[in-house]
Amino acid sequence: MKKTLLATSIALTLGTTATEAAFTSLADGAYQMAITGGCFGFGNCVTLGTGILWDNTNAGQTTFVQTVTAGPLPAGTYGSGIVGDGVMGVIDFNLSGGNISVTSFSQDSYLNTACGTFFLRGPDTSGMGGSIDATGNMVFDPTGRLALAASFSTTLGENPWNLDNGSDGLGTGLYEQFTTGTTSNRKKGVSPGFTLTGTTLQDAGAGIWTGTLVSAGNIGTTWGGFNLTQYSEEWNIKITFTSAVPVPAAVWLFGSGLAGLVGVARRRRSGG
Predict the structure, then answer these.
(1) Domain span at residue 261?
(2) For the residues 157-176, what does the mean pLDDT come to?
(3) What is the C-alpha separation between 186 and 168, in angstroms, rounded?
(4) Which pTM value belongs to this model?
(5) Of the four listed, 21, 103, 168, 185, which is most buried by Cβ atoms within 10 Å?
């Protein structure tokens, strides 16, 4: 009883309740990250009234259908594949030693009235990765992500999305990362740059973690007249543990062989 009262007193002193669970770091294994909400905007999408939200019920989320025959054709299917599935994207990844390797990427489109729908996909996930540390800080690298603007499908075609290669000489030539921390972009003309801040992962129990990833950048030179245009994205995410890392057969064989050697040594000591 005294121990219970002491624990409660300490919890209240620290500003927490005794029922709150501390953050637990993610063990090595396979995970699925679902984008459950968020926004996109040419500007600060998290500023009230400026962001464009997903519409998961829109038929255009599933596939892009080109209505004209001239110009470059998009390759592959766009969207997370299930209209009305309640999520805006699904990203599968493996985690090893805090490092992320992405195995699949799919995302619903952004409905943009200025340039039509933006269809996004990740056809090559080999460059996608990131990290998650023991305190819940996460970085997601979208290298390989592509997009297609419906209104300019025949002129611009499909181009890298999040690739910072602006003609102002300040572009990094790298994909802008998503982070639970702080991200910034550069000014465009008279428009000043701005900063977004995400939220670290929180333990929701039952092998589930939630948080917010943000990315702010400037559209690259492959987007023609849109070069250097500011953009921002916010992903509300839910990470679910799907399976542990399987132990290779060679490790099992090594372990059984080692156990056998230990048994032989014991029998020799006992005179058996």
Answers:
(1) 25-267
(2) 92
(3) 10
(4) 0.79
(5) 185
